[in-house]
Amino acid sequence: MHVVVVGCGRVGSGLASSLTGAGHTVAVVDRRSAAFNRLPPDFTGRQLTGIGFDRDVLVEAGIEEASAVAAVTNGDNSNILIARVARETFGIERVVARIYDPRRAVIFQRLGIPTVATVAWTTERVMRRILPDEAVEWVDPSAKVSLVERIVPAAVAGRTIAEFEADARVRFTAVSRLGSAQIATPQIILQEGDVVFVAVATDALASFDALISGHEGKGGH
Q1: What count of other Cβ atoms lies within 10 Å of the Cβ of residue 192?
Q2: pLDDT by residue (tens digit) across 103-123?
Q3: Top-confidence residue, 211 or 139
Q4: Radius of gyration of the chain, Cα coordinates, nearest whole angstrom
Q5: Residue 128 phi, psi (nearest 5)
Q6: Which residues have C-beta within 8 Å of that of residue 3, sequence separation ≥ 6?
Q7: Under CATH, what is the fold of the domain 133-218?
Q8: 159: Cβ–Cβ under 8 A, 6 or more apart, which residues?
Q9: pTM for the full model?
């Protein structure tokens, strides 16, 4: 497929290289021609100097035949404008905008523009390494549902998934045991060391963590 990448910084150049390496055609747009120096010498995609939300520039980049657009400049406003032009003017369905401000990211997600919030993502990745037992994998834009990963301790080994799903706000999605994952079913008996992936209503996260750690007295059902 053809992809238009707007912004040839570290993310844009890496993305463009990966896409061409996977066999896709790519056009990279940046307002500074010097930015293309980040691309590898064997880069086979097109390079266009211009403003990423300029419709003529996007047409020259092949947006009318594109299957996807990635707006990854270093400006939130530019990325959102590029994403909106791609979606609303050219009808591109697969559009993503890189956003630095997490508050803006939430707003634009609610407007139907998929975003990658760089600061929020990096913060979350670091938190996962520092506090693995409290990490949240993903939170929806309304902050009502969280996807979490937890390691089953000895205190709850022998209990079934059904016992945890008695709370309608908790749904197990997968269980990984000794490196092998399977779709979660209510009948699975948890073992110490299992890694479970669970969708939890955010307002029930504290009580779920109390349950999965075996500390039900700190906030059960």
Answers
A1: 12
A2: 777 677 666 677 776 655 566
A3: 211
A4: 22
A5: -60, -35
A6: 19, 24, 25, 26, 27, 66, 67, 68, 69, 70
A7: Alpha-Beta Plaits (3.30.70)
A8: 189, 190
A9: 0.61
- Asked if pLDDT for residue 129 goes beyond 70, the answer is no
Instruction: Please identify which residue in the block is written with the tokens 């706000």.
Output: 169
| Residue 220, pLDDT above cutoff 50 | no
d(CA 220, CA 95): 41
Domain layout of the chain by residue ranges: 2-121, 133-218
pLDDT classification of 29: cutoffs 50, 70, 90? very high
User: Can you name the CATH fold of 2-121?
Assistant: Rossmann fold (3.40.50)
Contact 39, 47 (CB under 8 A): yes
Amino acid at 148: V
Give the whole-angstrom CA distance, residue 117 versus residue 163. Answer: 35
